[in-house]
Fold:
Amino acid sequence: MLQQTVLMENILPIHLQEVVFSSSDPKYSRQISKLEKAGKLRKIASRIYSPNFTDSPQTIIRRNLFAILGKLYPGSILSHRSALEFQPTSANHIFLTYSYTKKIYLPGITLRFLEGHGPIEGDNLLSGKLYASQMERAFLENLQVSRQLGPESKTLTLPEIEEKLETVIRVKGEAALNEMRDKARDIAEILDMKVEYEKLNKLISALLHTQPSKLLSSPLAVARAFGNPYDPARLSLFEKLFVELKQHAFKDMPEKNTSNLSFRNFAFFEAYFSNYIEGTEFELEDAKRIIETNTPMSARDEDSHDVLGTYKLLSNKEEMTITPATPEHMLEILLYRHNVLLSARLSKNPGQFKDKNNRAGETHFVDHTLVKGTLIKGFDFYQALADPFAKAVYIMFLVSEVHPFLDGNGRLARVMMNAELVRLAQSKIIIPTVYRYDYVGALRRLTRQGDPSVYIRMMQRAQEFSATIFGDDMDVMEKQLESSNAFKEDDKAKLKIILS
Structure:
C-alpha cells in the first residue's frame, strides 16, 4: 500500500499544484479517481480538480486562469479587450480567439471563444499553449464592430482605445506609435483586417496632429491632439485632494501683519525658512545682512540670490495679491515668479519650464512633456474652490507635485500658496525648520498613498502657528519663532504654538 502511494505521488505530485486536470491516460485517470474518493482532490469544474478545499472554486480558477486556458484550450489566444486588460471584465467575461465560437462557463468566469486566425509571429506565449495577441493585433481586434456593449463587449470603447494609444506616446514617445502603426499595417494584411487598420491609422494620425482632432473623443487623447497632453495619474491625485478640501470648512485666520513693516518682517522669515527647507542654509544674521544690504555674499553668490529672489516676491504686497484667473494666466505667473526666484542660476533655466525629468528620492515628478497640460487640467479643480485656505493648499500641492521647473519648485509652490492668502487678507503660512519632517512626510503620503487628510491637517497646524508670528519689531518676531522651536532641526524638537 505504501509503495502504491509513493508511486501515485510520483505520477501526480498534487502537493505541488493547485489545479489538476483530467487525462485520457488511464494511470492518471485512475489516480485522480482514487484521490477524489480519498478526499484529497475535489472537482471544481469540468476536467478541473484541486487539492485546495479551503478557497472557493471561483477563487482557485481566477488565480490559475491562464494555466487552465493553456492546458484545456491549447493554441487559443487571449484577444480583443482581454489582450489589453489581461483580466476578466467587470461582468467576469474573458475573450479568446480559437477554432470555434462558443461560450463556456467556469465558476466565476465566462469564456468567450471567437473563431479566428491562430497565433502569428509576434503573439506572446503566456502559459502552456495559451497565447496573447501582440499589442498591434489587439488594437486591430478592438476596432472590430461589436454587437454588445459594456463589460460583455469583446472590444473596449473608443475613448478607452484612444487613451491606451495616448499612453504609448506618453511612455515611449511618438516614434513608438509610428512604429506600432507600421507593424499593424503588416498584421492587417495577414489577418484581413484592412478596415480596422484604416480606423487605427486615423486615430494615430489625429493623436500625432496629422488629421483633425474632431475624430477623437477621449479627453486625454483630445488634450494630446491639441498639444497639451497631461498626466492622468496626477489628475486623479488632484481630484482626491479637491474632494477632501470640499468636505471641510476652514477657520477664518485674519492676517495680523497688516502694516508694511510687519509684512516685510514676516516675508524675511518666510523667505529664510523657505530656502532653508530646500537646503539653502544660512546663519540668520547672514541672511539678514543679505536682505538689508541687497548684496549677495561673495562666497555664496547663487545661494544669496535665491534668498533675495524669494524675499523680493514675498515682500511685495502688490505682487502677492496676484492670483491666477485662467490656466494661461497661471502659467504666466509661474514663469515670471520663477524667473525672479532663480535669476542668478542660469543653468536652471529661470523662467522656463523643465526640459528634462526630475525626481526626489523614489518620487518621479510629472514628465517634462506633460507639464503644461497637467497644470492646465489641474487648474479646473483650483478654480472650483472658494475658501482661501483650500485654494492655497491646493495650488501649493499642484505646483509641488508637477514640479514644472528644474529647480526652485518647492519655494515657488509656497509663494503661490501664500499669494492666495494675502489676496484675501488671511494669515500667510511659514514652514519652519522644525516642521520640515511633518511637511515633507505629509506631501509624500499624499503623493504615494493618495491620502490628503494628513497633508491638510499639517497645513492647518502650520497656519495656526504662523498666525502667532507678528509685529513691527523684527527682534520680537524672532523671539516668538525661537520660543516655538522654529529654528531647531526637526529631529531635535517639536513645533510649539504659543498663543499670546
Residues 217 and 310 are 43 Å apart (CA to CA). The longest helix spans residues 174-191.
